[in-house]
Every structure is written in C-alpha cells, then in structure tokens.
Give the backbone structure.
Amino acid sequence: MMLLVYSLVVQWALAAGWGYKDGVLHNSIWLEQAAGVYHRESRSGKYQLTYKEAKAVCDYEGGQLATYEQLRQAWKIGFHLCAAGWLSKGRVGYPIVKATFNCGFGRTGIIDYGHRLNKSEKWDAYCYNPHAKECGGVLTDQKRIIKSPGYPEEYENELICYWHIRVKYGQRIRISFLEFDVEDDTSCLSDYLEIYDSYDDIHGLVDRYCGDDLPEDILSSGNVMTLKFLTDASVTAGGFQIEYVALNTGAEERSKSTEMPETITYT
C-alpha cells in the first residue's frame, strides 16, 4: 500500500510540471519562468554561498535575491525545491509543495530557517528576475535549423531559451552543430547550452556546452529532445546554428542491413 501511495505522489508531481531525480522531486523550468524565481548554487556545488556571495550571484545575472513573499508566490503556483537558499535581508528557506520522504519535515509551504545572524553561513540562493528575455518554442518539423536569438549577430544578455523538439513516435532525432560560439568559462556557468534526451530540463542531460569548439552530433534515444540556452548579464558571443533531423529508425535499420559488403582486394 505504501508503495502504491508513493507511486501516485510521483505521478501527480510529474503531471504538475515536476520531474523526479535522485529520490527528490524537482520543478520544471516552466515554473521558474512563470514565477520569476529561480535557484542557484555555487560553481563548487551545493551549500557553498555566503549571504554576500549569494547576492553577487543574483546581481551578476541581472536579478536580485528573492524576498520571502516572492518565493511564497512562486510556491503557490507549484515551485518546489529541496534546497535551502538565501533570500533577501539574510533570510534562508526553501519551497515545498508536496512533502516527500526526503524534504519538508512532513510539511508544505516555505520551510523557513528565519533571518540568519551569521551571514557567513553557507547555503544556496533564490534569485528573482521577472524580466529575463524568453525565446524558443515547441518544434514538430521533421527537419529544422535552430539559431541563437539574433544570429548571425551576437546574442543578448539575460536570455532564457527552451526549444522542445517532438517528432513522430518511433522516430529518433539527430542534432548536428553547424556553428557554435558561446562565452567560454571553466565550468560553463556564465552562458551555456544544455541538451536533454527528454521533453524537460530535468531528465536525460546529454551535456552542457560553451566555448567555440564544434561539438559532435547527438542522436536521441526517443522522439523528444530539449535544448536550453541561458545567458547571464555580461559578455556575449557569436551564437550558434544547430540542425535537427527526424530519423525513421526502422528505415535506418533496413538500409544498414541491405548495404553491400565492403570489397576487399588482395594483392
């Protein structure tokens, strides 16, 4: 019975725009866009930011530390994350929509740690930026070229782009990089493109890309893929052109089986 209840909770969460990963429910990026509130952690990992550093992270991306009320409004539309982060005025908390086995102490709402006297404590950050420029879309064509906004001119700062590709059931998607130039940094945290072998930005991360090296082609495992392009508040680059093509897997396999064997000449 317990397993059945747990399964129903997970299914409900997925329908609400969440994904399930590593035993924890995570909200989709769509909720972050709607709320204007998003989560950030240090480049070195979870719970590594002092209050001053958390403010700097949000400022650098063109936003600011979210207030308790902004986080609460985000929670009301389904924003859910099991990670305590700094808020404005030195407060710490995190939003729980549905209490899970790992988060929320059996409660929902904003799990509030209150105003911290020690601003050197290390947590994550919740930033607020409702004016980030959105781009992207849902793509169902059999073949298409995706360009960074403004290409061939440099892309803008503070972009949030999501391209969700969905082709026919039974097909696969091949992604080829034609041109690629995205601000480079060691951890690809300033500007970056992420590709997911799924229809969200939670499951199936293939890789994160920045710099100007041309990545290799990518072949999906199914008929859906997601491209996510985020830029911060400073430094831009030339952008990219990426082509995707829908492949009929049955035809692909038949063509391989009917290929003529290689001719070997002995001398």
Confidence is low (pLDDT under 50) at residues 1-18, 20-25, 251-267. Helices lie at 2-15, 29-35, 51-60, 68-76, 249-257.
